[in-house]
Amino acid sequence: MLSFLARRLAGLAVTLLATALVVFVVLEILPGDPAAVILGVSATPETVAALRTEFGLDLPAPERFLRWVGGLLTGDLGTSYGYRVPVAQLIGERLQVTLPLAFAAILLATLVGVPLGMLAASRPRSLRDAGVMVFAQAGLALPDFWVGILLVLAFAIGLHWLPSGGFPGWDAGLGPALASLILPVIALALPQAAILARVTRSATLEALQEDWVRTARAKGLGAAATLYRHVLRNALVPVVTMLGVRFSFMIAGAIIIEDVFSLPGLGRLMFQAIGQHDIIVVKDLVVVFAALVVVINFLVDIAYGIVDPRLRRRA
Question: Into which family does the record put it (predicted)?
């Protein structure tokens, strides 16, 4: 098991290094000078040159890359060109919005999608199965940002139950902060719940065809007990895989949802950094997103061993 973890950690490091190199090269070949964008069209060449020197943009590309990677390893993410504050501070403040949003959305999607999938698989080709599949098809067809707009029209503008956007901050109290996240969480979770329902249904139907299910039923175990005590655990491996994949998509999908609801998260910071040509923030954010995805996949691998002891013994 230790050798397995060591290999995964080594792969994590190589993936992040390759991501950093690709991001740096891509942003290097893009047109535009961050110093000229910040100072505007009326800036003199001397002023632009001075700002380039201040940001280290006049250094050779290999040296800038090594300095940037060295800073990532030591926790020094540099200073934002536009905000003039440490990038680590910006990301830390925005993570307080994005991570609760993503975790709440994946939790809601799991609580809705997995039971619906089990419910549909317990009576295939029945009315409940058809209802769950209609929900799944609708969830797959509707983009999350469009669902968010519909939720705002219904619950914020129409009923005035919840705020339509913005985030008061955790300092304003737990109630107002959570109220501002309810609609974004629902908008982000519903399409993912639809996908989880389909995956759970398929995995459960496959597990129900196994010989040990017929043996359990022949020994007198009830249908519900067989389904929830034995079949569910065996059907969780593909579900856990999909949870890891969808959580990564939620981190990326939060970029659009945060813009729809005007939430000051990582997604909105990314939009602002691109608009301001704040290259250092864009580079650091892409690496942070990649690190989150790699870490989530690493945790999914560990979860395999918890869900299925056979995989743990093989490792």
Answer: Belongs to the binding-protein-dependent transport system permease family.
